[in-house]
Design brief:
The chain has 247 residues and is an alpha/beta fold. It has one domain: Alpha-Beta Complex (Spore Coat Polysaccharide Biosynthesis Protein SpsA, Chain A), CATH 3.90.550. The chain has eight helices and 13 strands. The protein has an eight-stranded mixed beta sheet with strand order 1-4-3-2-5-11-7-12, sandwiched between helices. Strands 9-8-10 form a three-stranded antiparallel beta sheet. Strands 6-13 form a two-stranded antiparallel sheet. Strand 2, helix 1 and strand 3 form a beta-alpha-beta unit. The chain starts with a strand and ends with a helix.
């Protein structure tokens, strides 16, 4: 499996080092990717570094991502095949050094001040270790049944959330040992945070529009065997969190 890292992480000792590392995994869908990146460039007041992972995208998307890599605050890594969502996010987070980390899906569009609201919430609420713009509730099988906001949600949806790097260095991110490719990693992550005694919170703000499954649906169409992986991930979730889910 060939890979290529076009630019390495910035110097964390630089006086202009960014406040936020923004992590994005891409698999084609050029119009949505372009819209997402442009909205980040326009609407992010915080100093940021954008880390992109190209999961073997089509030519037009790959060329666009390569053009972005010429920017000083962009790092691009490319794989020639799609290895999913879970591992790429874990690898990209390792490259960064900023105090805060935001994961965002490539089929999102952000509004003015979106990143600042996330980092400010963590600064102002020291027991909260994960904040995003949408939460969800799980049924006893570990499947999402409804969306919600506030601090009572079961998990923060993976299309956009923020954690501190200090917390990441102590706690890690997604579970590569028990989960594969994609699905359930966000709910598992949030429940691990709750288990540790820390809080999660979904903000009551409409700052990120998620167009939903623009990458996931084509990937499942291309690789129907992934349905088995998804079922295995859900089975692990039920095994690991069964007592919690029954409550």
């Amino acid at each position: 499996m060939k890979s290529r890292l076009l630019k390495r992480k910035p110097d964390s000792n630089s006086p202009t080092s960014p406040e936020v590392d923004i992590i994005m995994v891409v698999r084609g869908q050029f119009p949505y990717v372009k819209q997402c990146v442009e909205s980040i460039q326009k609407n992010t007041r915080n100093g940021y570094h954008l880390y992109l992972w190209d999961n073997g995208s089509d030519e037009i998307t790959a060329k666009y991502l390569q053009s972005l890599a010429q920017e000083e605050n962009v790092t691009l890594h490319r794989e020639e095949e799609n290895i999913g969502f879970l591992i790429p996010n874990n690898r990209l987070v390792e490259l960064g050094s900023s105090p805060y980390i935001i994961l965002i899906n490539s089929d999102c569009e952000v509004r003015e001040g979106w990143a600042g609201f996330l980092t400010d919430w963590l600064k102002d609420n020291p027991n909260c270790e994960q904040v995003g713009y949408l939460g969800g509730y799980l049924d006893e099988t570990g499947r999402g049944v409804s969306c919600g906001q506030g601090g009572s949600v079961d998990y923060i949806c993976g299309h956009c959330f923020c954690i501190s790097r200090k917390f990441y260095e102590e706690f890690g991110l997604f579970d590569e040992e028990n989960l594969n490719f994609a699905y359930c990693e966000d709910s598992d992550f949030s429940m691990r945070i709750r288990e540790s005694g820390k809080d999660i919170h979904a903000l009551h703000l409409d700052m990120v529009v998620h167009y939903g499954n623009k990458t996931a649906i084509p990937v499942l169409t291309e690789n129907p065997e992934l349905n088995k992986i998804i079922e295995n991930n859900h089975a692990y979730l039920r095994k690991r969190w069964g007592k919690y889910l029954k409550k």
